[in-house]
């Protein structure tokens, strides 16, 4: 897999240090909550979610939401599909949504809107990466570990065609691999 990477954009050690900072901000912001409902967006947020939440010393309830917007390509399809039949119970709760990347903004906007429709009291969003680009949907993440350029990245949960999620860093794929 490493031979498919053009360059390492964010090394594993850098990610780990930044997660400590984000975790402390979340702890501070939600310290008065009795418990916090965390909703991770599958599959991309899995690695980020596990590493981040182990650093947050709060009472957490963790759920996952399966949504799709890339459908195997390198760009968002423009449509966010909720793939789960049953959604997490959030009525009257504070919710923290975790996702791998803020790109077009459609996924975070659609998920946040859905959670508010379901009665969430407060919804905050947290992403590993924020792409520096114009968004198709309004809004920014409340917490973002890193800002990157508008390039296609893999690793640390992010994939290309279902592969590369298990890389311990964020890297840029070689053009020859994207097919």
Which features would summarize this protein structure in a list?
179 residues, alpha/beta, Rossmann fold, three-stranded antiparallel sheet, single chain
Descriptive report:
- There is one protein chain.
- The chain is an alpha/beta fold and 179 residues long.
- The protein has a single domain (11-152), classed as Rossmann fold, CATH 3.40.50.2020.
- It has helices at 12-29, 46-53, 106-117, and strands spanning 5-10, 36-42, 60-68, 81-82, 94-102, 122-131, 143-148, 153-154, 170-173.
- A six-stranded mixed sheet has the order 4-3-2-5-6-7, with helices on both faces.
- Strand 5 (94-102), helix 3 and strand 6 (122-131) form a beta-alpha-beta unit.
- The longest helix has 18 residues, at 12-29.
What is the tally of helical segments? 3
Strand content: 25-35%
CATH topology category name: Rossmann fold
Got a strand count?
9
**Major β-sheet profile:** 6 strands, mixed
What would you call the structural class?
alpha/beta
Q: How would you describe the shape? A: globular
CATH classification, class level: Alpha Beta
If you compute it from the alpha carbons, what radius of gyration comes out, rounded to the nearest whole angstrom? 16 Å
In N-to-C order, the SSE pattern is: EHEHEEEHEEEE
Q: What is the averaged pLDDT score?
A: 90
- Alpha carbon gap, first and last residue: 15 Å
Give, in spatial order, the strands making up the sheet with the most strands: 4-3-2-5-6-7
In the CATH hierarchy, the architecture is 3-Layer(aba) Sandwich
What's the number of domains?
1
- Kindly state the percentage of residues in helix: 10-25%
The low-confidence runs, each spanning 5 or more residues with pLDDT under 50, are none
């Amino acid at each position: 897999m490493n031979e498919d990477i053009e360059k390492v954009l964010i090394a594993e050690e850098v990610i780990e240090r930044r997660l400590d900072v984000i975790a402390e901000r979340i702890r501070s912001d939600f310290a008065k909550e009795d418990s916090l409902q965390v909703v991770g967006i599958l599959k991309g947020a899995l690695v980020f979610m596990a590493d981040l939440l182990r650093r947050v010393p709060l009472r957490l309830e963790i759920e996952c939401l399966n949504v799709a917007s890339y459908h195997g390509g390198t760009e968002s399809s423009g449509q966010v599909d909720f793939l789960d039949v049953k959604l997490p119970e959030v009525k009257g709760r504070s919710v923290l949504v975790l996702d791998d990347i803020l790109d077009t903004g459609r996924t975070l906007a659609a998920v946040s809107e859905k959670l508010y429709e379901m009665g969430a009291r407060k919804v905050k969003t947290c992403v590993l990466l924020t792409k520096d680009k114009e968004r198709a949907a309004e809004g920014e993440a409340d917490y973002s570990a890193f800002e990157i350029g508008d390039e296609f990245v893999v690793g640390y949960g992010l994939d290309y065609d279902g592969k590369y999620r298990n890389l311990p860093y964020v890297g840029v794929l070689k053009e020859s691999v994207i097919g």
